[in-house]
Amino acid sequence: MLDLLEHIRWEGDALVILDQTLLPTETKYVSLRTIDEAWEAIRVLRVRGAPAIGVAAAFGMYLGLREGRSLSFPAFEKLAKKQGEYLCSSRPTAVNLRWAVERVQKLIRQEKARSVSELVDRLLEEARHMIEEDNAVCLNIGRYGMELIPEGARVLTHCNAGGLATARYGTALSPVYAAVQQGKRVAVYADETRPLLQGARLTAYELQRAGVPVTLICDNMAATVMAQKKVDLVIVGADRVAANGDFANKIGTYGVAILAKEHGIPFYCAVPLSTIDLKLSSGEQIPIEERPGEEVTQGFGKQTAPTGINVFNPAFDVTPHKYVTSFITEKGVINPPFKKNLSNLFKTE
Ligand code: MRU
Q1: Ligand 1 atom 15 nearest Cα
Q2: Which of 62, 97, 132, 259 could form a disulfide with 123 if both were Cys (CB 3.0 to 4.6 A apart)?
Q3: Catalytic residue among 134, 191, 219, 239
Q4: What pLDDT does residue 308 have?
Q5: How far, in Å, CA of 325 to CA of 328, rounded?
């Protein structure tokens, strides 16, 4: 594998993360020692991307519960419920957050025979294990996904579903890294991704750092590069996939999907199973985060719209499943019909 950044790790008594709000101009690691610091880091996108949020939430649960060593089991379990709801309130769309919180809560129930103090240690162990697990999952996504990338391919992606959005290897970018590793020539078009510029600040940064050829475009240029036949396939990530294959991802993904269909370009969505939410029958039920208007009117400190203007700033959109060629998961490439084939993934677990 290419040398990708280890941007989230446990060190001493703290969760250490690379502050992604400062990239690409500043590389600063911050230490999170309390659940409030973890909540804030997720909320303001110091750590972001669905799988990375999940990992941070698992550590957040530990940070919120490590002071509870002397509690009785019922009091500890109650605290775990409260802390879990608190962490889930930081961002609503990526289901990995709740998935991680519920996994920790389930572990507490399953291992109630231990002392509460032992349980606390077990939670840290589990959070650290989730980093290893995410690495293995993303490498498998890469292994399956690279088969879809022909020699010389030009791949368009939106937002950042790379190493920075997971523990290390990425979802949408993992097949790109794997194909490059395999010796294929692959080039990427990165949509800049308004308003927070995850494509420009993060995808362009991590691909350049890994030595993968990358060309940055503004979001409104995707149609032109497709019309000029400069794109062979699209790969994006997701924050939540509903049972029928509709999925939420960074705002603008839906438009890219429509454009890909219009131009006859395959459109792939790379996701770990932890991002698939079979409880929701369709994308209409996915909660969509709305963020402050200032992100649009004064992104990165410069005012670019009239004072007092009305702003609508949804952070995600929903792409209907009819636009998806296949999902790339750690268990293989999933083709339509998605309702049947996505649910089958869980039957064999
Ligand atoms: O708001 P962000 O930066 O957390 O949004 C991230 C995305 O939309 C990613 O594409 C998604 O979480 C998949 S990450 C592997």
Answers
A1: 161
A2: 62
A3: 239
A4: 97
A5: 10
The per-residue pLDDT for range 28-40, each reduced to its tens digit, is: 999 999 999 999 9
Question: Are residues 91 and 107 both part of a single domain?
Answer: yes
Per-residue model confidence (pLDDT) at position 348: 63
Q: Specify whether 129 is located in the same domain as 245.
A: no
Considering the domain architecture, whether residues 133 and 153 belong to the same structural domain is answered as no
Cβ neighbour number for residue 313 with a 10 Å cutoff: 17
Residue 349 confidence (pLDDT) above 60: no
Ligand 1 centroid to residue 73 C-alpha, Å: 36
As a whole number of angstroms, the distance between CA 194 and CA 217 comes to 11
Q: Give the pLDDT confidence score for residue 3 in this predicted structure.
A: 81
Question: Which residue has the CA at smallest separation from atom 8 of ligand 1?
Answer: 250
What integer pLDDT is reported at residue 1 of this predicted model?
57
Write down the pLDDT at residue 247. 98
Of 139, 170, 203, the position where a domain reaches its end is: 139
Does the annotation count 239 as an active-site position? yes
> Domain ends where: 86, 120, 139?
139
Contact 345, 331 (CB under 8 A): yes
Residue 1 lies in a domain: no
Q: Which residue segment(s) compose the domain that 18 sits in?
A: 8-139
Considering the domain architecture, whether residues 239 and 315 belong to the same structural domain is answered as yes
In a domain, 167, yes or no: yes
Instruction: Give me the half-sphere count of Cα atoms (radius 13 Å) on the Cβ side of residue 302.
Output: 3
Are 240 and 248 spatial neighbours (Cβ–Cβ below 8 Å)? yes
Backbone CA torsion sign across 253, 167, 155, 278: negative
Number of domains forming the structure of the chain: 2
- CB atoms closer than 10 angstroms to residue 106: 10
Same domain for 126 and 259: no
